[in-house]
């Protein structure tokens, strides 16, 4: 009888521990699902470009204020991603690239995703307004609005120029960072915007080339679906040729030095080479390679701006 009670006690304890562990795992997985709703990979690039925009500004920024601004920009970007996933859930479930996202995979209910996104959007703008800078808060609110209503709801399913016009939303973060630091919209911050704006079509159309079947299936008029692969590749090359000289403007206006100029020139040459090879080659792997290189390209362009500002440019001035 004593042995039986002891065994029952141990079994009950084991079940209790198992239940607690299962609940803990469930909470962890739910948190991971909500994190994925924010499009963390996109958010990482947004945060980095915003940080560079803030660091390039010709003022000293209070570290706490800078941290709050960057968190607000990250949360605002994540909120946009969550609401975008809520709206696009009908096509996400049919596309190979997106069918494992939290909503189509059944991990998060659509209304919860929408509520989550709206709360984060409002909170990010409100905190930016109260603790950082009024104009930066206004620009952040406009960016969220633009991505959701102009790009996601209005343009994405209606025109092959969706990413050209709608891509402006992704180009605002460095400008928000600059305005958060200075309180002003300047030509220099506009150049940072222009770099990402011109980068977006080659980046997105490269993806659309090797994911063309997905977009055809759901009726999204991405450029390769509407005009075909060759014309899309020509437009990728044209945007790339336009982008390269624009990336040199920061040096011309004194925002950066020779190190950045050389880096931008080298990266631009590599990007043009990718675009030319893409135009000549029908192999799908070329489009995939172009897509991944564009991600690296943008990171390195902004990393070069940051390095030039913090290390090389001050050294140039000291030597001069």
TrEMBL record:
Membrane topology term: Multi-pass membrane protein
Biochemical pathway: Porphyrin-containing compound metabolism; heme O biosynthesis; heme O from protoheme: step 1/1
Keyword Membrane attached: yes
Pfam families per UniProt: UbiA
Record function comment: Converts heme B (protoheme IX) to heme O by substitution of the vinyl group on carbon 2 of heme B porphyrin ring with a hydroxyethyl farnesyl side group.
PANTHER family according to UniProt: 4-HYDROXYBENZOATE SOLANESYLTRANSFERASE (PTHR43448:SF7), PROTOHEME IX FARNESYLTRANSFERASE, MITOCHONDRIAL (PTHR43448)
Name of this chain's protein: Protoheme IX farnesyltransferase
Native source organism of the sequence: Varunaivibrio sulfuroxidans
Record lineage: Bacteria, Pseudomonadati, Pseudomonadota, Alphaproteobacteria, Rhodospirillales
């Amino acid at each position: 009888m004593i042995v039986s009670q002891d065994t029952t006690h141990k079994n009950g304890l084991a079940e209790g521990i198992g239940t607690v562990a299962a609940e803990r795992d469930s909470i962890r997985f739910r948190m991971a699902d909500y994190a994925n709703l924010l499009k963390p990979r996109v958010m990482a690039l947004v945060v980095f470009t915003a940080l560079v925009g803030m660091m390039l500004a010709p003022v000293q920024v209070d570290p706490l204020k800078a941290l709050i601004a960057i968190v607000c920009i990250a949360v605002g970007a994540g909120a946009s991603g969550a609401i975008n996933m809520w709206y696009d859930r009908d096509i996400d479930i049919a596309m190979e690239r997106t069918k494992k996202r939290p909503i189509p995979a059944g991990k998060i209910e659509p209304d919860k995703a929408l509520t989550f996104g709206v709360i984060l959007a409002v909170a990010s703008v409100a905190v930016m307004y109260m603790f950082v800078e009024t104009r930066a808060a206004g620009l952040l609110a406009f960016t969220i609005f633009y991505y959701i209503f102009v790009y996601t709801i209005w343009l994405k399913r209606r025109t092959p120029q969706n990413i050209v016009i709608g891509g402006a939303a992704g180009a605002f973060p460095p400008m928000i960072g600059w305005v958060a630091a200075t309180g002003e919209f300047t030509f220099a911050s506009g150049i940072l915007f222009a770099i990402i704006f011109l980068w977006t079509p080659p980046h997105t159309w490269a993806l659309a080339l090797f994911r063309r079947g997905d977009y055809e299936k759901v009726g999204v008029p991405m450029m390769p679906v509407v005009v075909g692969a060759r014309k899309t590749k020509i437009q990728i090359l044209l945007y790339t040729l336009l982008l390269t000289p624009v990336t040199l403007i920061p040096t011309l206006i004194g925002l950066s030095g020779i190190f950045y100029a050389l880096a931008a020139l080298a990266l631009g040459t590599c990007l043009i080479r990718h675009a030319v090879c893409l135009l000549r080659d029908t192999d799908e792997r070329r489009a995939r390679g172009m897509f991944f290189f564009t991600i690296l390209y943008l990171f390195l362009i902004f990393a070069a701006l940051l390095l030039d500002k913090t290390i090389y440019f001050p050294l140039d001035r000291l030597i001069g």
